[in-house]
Every structure is written in C-alpha cells, then in structure tokens.
Design goal:
Elements (H helix, E strand, L loop, with lengths): L1 E5 L5 E6 L5 E6 L11 H17 L5 E5 L6 H9 L2 E6 L1 H13 L6 E5 L5 H7 L7 E5 L8 H11 L5 E7 L9 H9 L2 E10 L13 E9 L2 H14 L9
Parallel strand pairs: 4-5, 4-7, 5-6, 7-8
Antiparallel strand pairs: 1-2, 2-3, 8-10, 9-10
Length: 246
C-alpha cells in the first residue's frame, strides 16, 4: 500500500502499510551504522512480497533473510506472509532485530539468528539447506570485501530449488555500489533475472535518492555441484572465521 513515517526526538519510526492494512514499523536513528538504517531496498522488497505473496506461494515457504539489519521492513513483512521466517545478521545487530520482531508481535513466526558471512564453518553447523525454501537480501552490495563471503554463504545455503530474491539500490546518498562487479561474480553460479525495476523516490526510506533506482533480482543455482566445489575451495583457502581471500 505505502509507507508511513513519524519523527521527533532522536529515535524515528518508519514503516510500510501492507495490503491487509497491517503496518510494519521499524525504529532508527539518523546517521546510525550501516546495519541500523532503513535503506530503500527493504521497502521495495516488502512491497514486492506483499503484492506477489500468492503467486510466490509464501504462505507455504520457510524464508531466510541475509544481512537483515535492525530495520528490515522486508523481513518483517515476510514474517507476516511466510510460513516461517528467519532473520539473520552479525551478533552486534541481533538484539535490535529481536526488538523489531517483538514490536511486530511476530515471535513464533519469526526467528532471529546469528549468521556471519565470513564464518562458513559456523553457518554450516547452524543451518541446513533443507530448512530453507527462499532467501531474501536487500542492499547487501556495499563494501566490496564482503562480496566473496556473501557469495559463499549463498552457495552454501542454496539447494537447486532455492529461490533468492535480492533488492539493491543503484546508489545511496554518500556511496555508489559497484553492483555490476558483484553481478559478474554471481553469474558464474546463478541464473539471474530482473523481477522489478523501480524508483527509490516514494518507497518510504529516509535515505532515498531522487534519481535512484532499486532493482529486484531473482537468483537460482545453475549447478549445485559447482556451488559445492566453490564452497569447499573457500573453506580450504581461508573463508572460515576471517575474510575470504581471492
């Protein structure tokens, strides 16, 4: 339906009104850290999931979001629409995500779990591909040193039938992500289609660019064996508990 916003004081509230009339709200502080800001991509994906819930069969699916951050409008919207949703991020963001889930009365349908892209060993022990039908991620292409850890996490968690929906801005107020380079990395392992291309303006984020765009892409594995071989190489070359090496 649209976005809602209220200000005043250090903490501000922004949200998304679903087709059902329910309002998903998140709290944030202007100029907070990267994982604590409501970027445009999360609003775009929330609206996409809401509009296409039946076609996507969300009510029968278990979804996992990578890099949820504390302001995941998309993750909370998925929590309303999916059979079960798991929101994940680094340990320092987990309490804030849990608070957002509690405010939305979603405990029981939404779990919050630590998942650090650079720690494949822990991810392998804590998650299984069989429990995940769909993966969401929004505005994850920011720092280039995180691209390979993110790629390897995706390859580890995806099975042949897993659908990945990824919403990413083409620009931010103070940074332009190199999405094309990340796409080159993905294309070796995933079939990629653009599901939606829309303006940032009007999505509801306080960090919109007037001329910016958000693209929602769908990713599916090309070859599960190839993906597993890459994960095995990553484990050997040092993607466990430290930055992945080229």
């Amino acid at each position: 339906m649209g976005s809602v916003f209220s200000g005043g004081g250090a903490v501000q509230v922004v949200g998304y009104e679903m087709k059902s009339g329910e309002i998903i709200e998140v709290e944030f502080q202007p100029n907070a850290g990267l994982g604590f800001v409501p970027w445009p991509g999360t609003f775009a994906l929330a609206a996409y999931l809401d509009a296409n819930a039946e076609a996507l069969g969300l009510s029968n699916l278990v979804a996992l979001e990578l890099g949820s951050g504390s302001c995941s409008v998309a993750g909370l919207t998925a929590g309303k629409l999916c059979k079960k949703t798991v929101l994940t991020d680094r340990v320092e963001v987990i309490d804030s995500i849990g608070n957002a889930v509690a405010r939305s009365n979603l405990w029981g349908k939404v779990d919050v779990r630590v998942l650090d892209w650079a720690d494949l060993e822990f991810t392998m022990s804590a998650f299984t591909t069989q429990e995940i039908d769909m993966i969401f991620m929004t505005d994850v292409v920011y720092f280039d040193f995180l691209w390979k850890p993110l790629l390897h996490t995706l390859l580890l968690l995806c099975k042949p039938t897993t659908q990945v929906l990824w919403a990413n801005c083409d620009g931010y107020p103070s940074y332009t992500p190199n999405v094309d380079e990340f796409l080159k990395m993905l294309e070796e392992f995933f079939e990629i289609t653009v599901e939606q291309d829309r303006r940032q303006l009007g999505l509801g984020s306080p960090n919109e660019l007037p001329t910016g765009r958000v693209l929602i892409r769908r990713l599916t594995l090309k070859d599960h064996l190839l993906a597993q071989e890459e994960v095995d190489r990553a484990m050997v070359k040092g993607c466990v508990r430290r930055r992945c090496m080229p």
